[in-house]
Amino acid sequence: MSRLFSSSSVLGAAGSKMASFGKVTHCIFDMDGLLLDTEPIYERVLGDLLKRYSTAYPRTTRMKVMGTTEQRTCEILVNDLRVPCSVDEFLAQFRRNQLLHLGQAPLLQGAERLVRHLHRHNVPIALATSSGVDSVEVKTKNHRELFELFGHKVMGSSDPDVKEGKPAPDIFLVAASRFADSPPPDRCLVFEDAPNGVTAAIAAGMQAVMVPDPRVEEDQRKHATLVLRSLEDFQPEQFGLPPFST
Fold it and tell me: How far apart (Å, rounded) are the C-alpha atoms in residues 178 and 130?
């Protein structure tokens, strides 16, 4: 899945403008839409589910739920779109349907290269996803060896320590606290695709590299520290991390 390069403050693959960022020692990754191309699957599952209730799935609502927990996603859909069922009923259907389709989600461009590079250079890395344990298990089953490289995983929809989902900072603060050396927030770099996730990272006191969906508006990207077309364009040395060898 290709990404659009749309921020004047970032470096593309060729690098035409230098920027200075804070040095970091630890990295925290979102999963859906950043490492795994799951967003089209989620849209299809939710769209089909809403059709059962003769309800459209408008673009504004799709952007609103991006990056939120499963529970919060269903609350927004049921309440905003006036779906004629309870949130719990909708959530149960959503969880059942998503597990049937998410196992085939491919990795996005640059994801494997960056994760392996950081792990090889002993940079502590963690996963911080709004998904729950069951969902993560299904989505990563074809990429199990890669996801085992993460030192730990925080799954917002099922982790009791994550009191509020994105855009609240909880999930990233919990992820940082579970590194062996509990680094301060400003030493953590977050990789995100969703505006809610970027807001959460900045609220946590961390820098945020954003790889947005092309449909994300320019004003929803402006709070990110850096906006890129894909993880393939990331230059680790800009944040004091070991550079790629080639």
Answer: 17
